Amino acid sequence: MRFLESDGSGDFRLTKDLIRDIPAYAILSHTWGDDNQEVTYEDLAEGLGKSKAGYQKIRFCGEQAAQDGLRYFWVDTCCIDKTNVVELQMSINSMFKWYKNAAKCYVYLSDVSMPEDKLENDSNLDVQSDFRTARWFTRGWTLQELIAPSSVEFFSTDYKRLGNKLSLERLIHEITGIPVEALQGYDLTTFSIDERVSWVAKRETKHEEDIAYSLFGFFGIFLPLLYGEGRENAFRRLREEVNRSVKSHEFDKHSKLGIENQSEFTAHEFRSIHNPRRFRGRMSSKYVT
Fold it and tell me: What region holds the Heterokaryon incompatibility domain (predicted)?
């Protein structure tokens, strides 16, 4: 895992690719802008990229991490060498774990603004901002960035803190339909396969296969990325791997729940993985106060 390291003077540099002794780190969650305005690994390796629009959110992440006592931080646009196919494959398969292990996750909402005088309390977001319609809530990859980390903090386009995953849990639940228990960090096996797949039903990705790939971490599986295989084939491979995983690891759990025929149970659940969009309009309404 390659990080950005703050140098104490407001600047930062890329670290080598670390395999062991991973330090405490912050991680950025955001939506991508135009590709030519995002700072890449190559840009930073060559000392470039500061004139790109995406540089400011990287600097924000580093400054916020420093305020939180964290020297290292990670940003997907520039910490992965995407020209290295092996590194890209490994990174996408590890992404859920990397977000889960982060000490802090900062969500940068590029389309949400909040004037200083409206930040008296988190409830202002409900009626006085465009938080509800933020593009971040519509993207496929940001789902795991919401669920995996224990600490998720939201910031406006002008870097004002809007609240965190727990203080905003009811609002986030209303926006996404995701059960508040999932936002609170309940074990994902608490939720059925159908329910976990339903969380991505209203989300989109740039590449059609990514909507399936973005679910790998929700089932603890690892698969090669085959861009060009299409959405249907990507979900077919996901379904087959989840099938193997469930049969290997969850048989005892389901048996204790009184499910006598495991094969019938899994066959019913796996239908959802083929077409998650059938869940549109009937997301979970569970909420625990």
Answer: 25-114
104 CB burial (10 A radius; 0-12, 13-18, 19+): buried
d(CA 31, CA 73): 17
Please report, rounded to a whole number, the percentage of residues in the chain having pLDDT higher than 90. 74
Q: What is the dihedral of CA 271, 184, 170, 278, to 10 degrees?
A: -10
Is the overall model pTM greater than 0.90, yes or no? Answer: no
Axis crossing angle, helix 231-249 with helix 262-274, rounded to the nearest 10: 150
What one-character-per-residue DSSP string does 49-113 give? -TTSTTHHHHHHHHHHHHHTT-SEEE-HHHHS-TT-HHHHHHHHHHHHHHHHH-SEEEEE-TT--
CA of 73: how far to CAs of 23, 28, 62, 271, 280, in Å?
Answer: 10, 8, 6, 39, 35
Contact 254, 262 (CB under 8 A): yes
> How many Cβ atoms sit within 10 Å of the Cβ of residue 78?
24
> How far is it between the farthest Cα atoms of the chain?
62
How many H helices and E strands in the chain? 13, 7
Which residue shows structure tokens 């060009």?
A: 228
Residue of 254, 181, 189, 183 lying closest to 218 (CA atoms): 189
Please report which confidence band the pLDDT of residue 271 belongs to, taking 50, 70 and 90 as the band edges: low
How far apart CA 11 and CA 25 sit, in angstroms, is: 16
pLDDT 10s digits, 105-157: 999 999 998 766 665 555 555 545 689 999 999 999 999 999 999 999 999 99
What is the distance between the alpha carbons of residues 171 and 169, in angstroms, rounded to a whole number? Answer: 6
